[in-house]
Structures are given as structure tokens and as C-alpha cells.
Amino acid sequence: MNSFEELQAQLGPAWALNQPGVGxxxxxxxxxxxSVGESLLSHYASRIPALEHRYLLAHLLLHRIEACxxxxxxxxxxxxxxxxxxxxxxxxxxxxxxxxxxxxxxxPDSSPRSMAAKLLDRPDLLEALRTSFGDRPVFIEPWNVTxxxxxxAMQLGAPINGTAPNLWPLxxxxxxxxxxxxxxxxxxxxxxxxxxxxDVVAAIAAVxxxxxxxxxxxxxxxxxxxxxxxxxxxxxQVGGGPAADEQIRARVAALPDWYLRDxxxxxxxxxxxxxxxxxxxSMQLDITPYGEVAVLSTHEQVLGGETGQxxxxxxxxxxxxxxxxxARYGHAIGERLARRGVVGRLSVDFxxxxxxxxxxxxxxxxxxxxxxxxxxxxxxxxxxxPGRYDxxxxxxxAADGTGRSYCATxxxxxxxxxxxxxxxxxxxxADAGLQFDHRTGTGxxxxxxxxxxxxxxxxxxxxxxxxxxxxxxxxxxxSALDGHTRQARLGGG
Length: 493
Prior knowledge:
The protein has helices at about 5-10, 10-15, 40-45, 50-55, 80-90, 95-100, 115-120, 125-135, 145-155, 175-180, 195-210, 240-255, 255-265, 325-340, 375-385, 420-430, 450-455, 465-490; strands spanning about 25-30, 70-75, 100-105, 140, 190-195, 215-220, 230-235, 265-270, 275-280, 280-285, 295-305, 310-315, 345-355, 360-370, 385-390, 395-400, 405-415, 445, 455-465. By secondary structure, the chain is an alpha+beta fold.
């Protein structure tokens, strides 16, 4: 191929084969390459292998798409007990076929870099992979796409189902606010394209002028994700006049040097949305290689961290009071992005506030042109309980007409679990009768089990018939692990 554009022309035909019942042999390369800023990668350095292993859940599609071979790339091999666990979740009569069509490829490198960057250091491995494809159609499913992922695609001769790097700025916070306005989607009062302390102070003054009762503002880096570039400035104790500006200036100027340095590349300041009731929903969609927009899901995000801005988990679906509205807004945003050439998975984050019962206001916050924290739980649902998301009902409708909900997290953590073998957690969940059961289409699916060795953390998706049932499965899993550790302490183990 002479250019990435020519290579991408092959995406549509290869992608179209990855559907149940098509029957044409093809290869899907799972590339969970977290190509983000150096400071963010350094922050997650010890957990990078576990974050890559989240997408082992994509393994579950192999029992539905029987002509697909999956090549999964990671910097660290998961334990065999983890691979055996995922195999146990597919129907017994298809396990041999699934095992034969899943290929784990390890690029051993513990540096805090993306998988694509590490793979580019291994031309021998790239050549071996390219040779293994033969003449079969192949495409790459990335986490996100930067120049490193493009170079991997070119080296492998495989198109990539993701948005080209030159379009990445469409997902910046400032660009997102402009696109929301063009699409007729409400946004919080705020200002785009801030770069300096002076810009931030002026933007906060403008927010206070428009919204005198605003409890605070959020400063966000343009190019950031999962809330890691967000800082909340509380305005409730700030007075008026020039003294207020100086007080705010002192607070902003006291932010860490790295934060102000990254802000120079651009950011936004927005009113902190609040209300008697407040939620942080999101919606997830696909843009096909042919420009079609499909709304896949809506979620309630669970946020944590010191400022309540960091994603820790989600509940599906979003509140029915506004789930259909989220889907309509998301579709309108997706259509505009599709016209600009965006391809693959993306999500849009919102804030929803309610002062009067039943009267919710929804505001779009940001676009994520990549996979994210809601991708892998949705993957679990789609592949273990096939069906469709009804955008008007705001509900997953399984093939038998029944509904499903889930509760998911990447951050179930307890110091008492540090060092637990993955097999122990898998067994504790199974012994408690919580493991996913194909007969009922409900139960718990685990992920990120390699993080137990780092900080006693793992993730799960609890699929229930109702939101309440899903939440019960989530809590029951924690209780099962707590019970195990109590017994181990009492027994001296």
C-alpha cells in the first residue's frame, strides 16, 4: 500500500465479514493500544497489562462468529487460568473451535508505552504476523488510533476500524462543544480554547456572569480522558468584584506545574452542573466504514476520585427518564462526525440534573473517539446475551424478547485481596452461584484479574434481568470475596 487512505479502502469489505453467519474466513487483530499522553501512561504504568487484558472479553465473540480468527496483542500474557475461564463462558459445544481460533501474541515490554509503540520495535514479530494472515481478509480493532497504530496497520497490511489521527482533534473538549452546538445538543455554560491562567480566570468570570448561582466550574484539558484532565474549582465561597478574580487566579495558579503545562495545548472551562438530583450518563455508538451510525447503548457512569470526575464504572441502561433523549442526541452527533470521516467506536458523555421531579436537563460534555470504560461490559452483554438496544425504550431486548441490564466496574478493590490468585476469585464467584449462566442469560463475568497482584483490584460485569438484579450481583460478588478473605484469615491461610 502506498498510503493509509488506500489501505483503509479495504476496511469495509473486511469488517462486513465479522458478522454471525457470514462464513468467510477472516482475521481480527485486537490491539488494545493505549496511546495517550506520557503523563497519563506513567500514572497507569503498573496497570497497563491489566488494562490491555480488559479486552480479552472480545474473545467471547468467537463463539458467535465462527469464521473469525482473533489475534490478541498484549505486553504480558494472562495466566492460563484466565484464558481457561473465558473459554468456560462460551457454550460447551463450541469451546474446541473457539480455542483453535484464538491466538495470544505477547510483546514482552514493561515500559509505560502503548502496545503499538512496543510492536513497532519488533519488525520480526510484525513480519511473522503478516505472514500468518495468508490471503485472508484482516482488520484491526484498536483502542484508539495515533500515528503508531497507523504504522502498525501499514506494516501488517491490515486496515484499522478506528478514526484516523488527523481527525483526533474532533474529540477535543473545545471541538466537542462547538460540534454539540452545531448539532442542536445542549451544552453547559462555558468557554472553549483556554490556554493560560488568564484565560481560565476570564472564562470563570464569564460563567459567573451568566450563571451567578453556579456552585463551581470544571477546567478540562482538551486532549484527555476518563476525567484525568479535569479539575473542579469550587465557587460557593467566592465573593464578588476584583478580589474574587484574584482569589480565583491564586487557586488556578497553584495547580500543579504539569497540569498548567498540559493546559497550554488547550482546554475548556464549564459550569459544574448540579441539581437536587444529578447523574453522569453517556451513550456509545458505532460509525461503520460505510458511514452508518448505530446507537449501541446508554449508561449511567459511576464517578469517583477526589473531585468526583474520574470514571470508575457504569450501569446499563441509562435512566429511562432521558435514555431516549441521549440516543437522539448521540445519533445527531454521530451523523456530523460520520460526515467528517470518523469511523469505529466512540462515546459521548453527558451531565443530567433535576431540580423538579421528572424534569431532567441533559447537557453534552465531551466526545471520546476511542473505546473506553463502557466498551468491554457492552461486549460481554452483546456476545453472551445476543439482542439489540431499543433506543426508544432505552432497554436491551434479548433474542427471546426479555430485557437485560448490567452493573460494571474496573475498580473493585480491597487491600485484603492483594495477591489473590485469579483462580481463587474465579472459584469464589462460581461457588457463590454467581458465574454467568447461559441457561438464564444472567450472572457475573470477571476481567482485569491480573490487577489483583498489583493492588488487589479486579473488574466485573454483572448481567441481570433488571437494574436491581444487576446491582445485587455486583454486591454479591464483593460479599463473596470478603467472605473468602475472612475465612482465609480465620484459617490462617
